[in-house]
Amino acid sequence: MLGAVSAGRPPVPSPSPSRWLAAGAVLLLSLPLMVALWVAVALWLGPGAAGFMALLLALDATLLLALCGLARSGARALSAFAFVLAGSALAAWVVVAAEVGRSFGLAPWESALRLGPGLFAAIGRELAGPADAVALAVALGCALWWNAPRRGGGLNGRRPAPSSRR
Questions:
Q1: Which contiguous run of DSSP H or E holds residue 144?
Q2: Tens digit of pLDDT for each residue in 65-109?
Q3: Residue 69 near residue 103 (C-beta atoms within 8 A)
Q4: DSSP of 12-68, one letter per residue?
Q5: Would you say 110 and 30 are in contact if contact means Cβ atoms under 8 Å apart?
Q6: For the whole model, what pTM was predicted?
């Protein structure tokens, strides 16, 4: 019968609170940069939300959390999920604000401060299409999948052969 530890692998210690604090700080520093990149791409491509950029957010969160030394876990997966969700919401808000602000001669940050939820919803429905919703759903799923703990060993997720178990 298999125990909690797979054959030949030591248990993974839980990361210290300072490591989680550092990871949170890195994600918070990265969020405005990724939102700015998303908004720049969306405005460069023309009217639309550029939903495919959510995949870049998921990849960024995964790489940053791995570089901070956090092992794959449920908490890491939820952190990446929250990062993608927050980044997507902020980017959508600024893209809509930029489109509205362009009509009134306002800079995107000025328009973002004046934009209300009703106008955001009305304009956002026009800008974002079904492809953007699918891209966001795929990105959220990837953020969870790439950061969730793996059951088996190796890259393919298979368990070790029975002959290698003790």
A1: helix 130-147
A2: 999 999 999 999 999 999 999 999 999 999 999 989 988 999 888
A3: no
A4: PPPPPHHHHHHHHHHHHHHHHHHHHHHHHHHHHH-SS--TTHHHHHHHHHHHHHHHT
A5: no
A6: 0.79
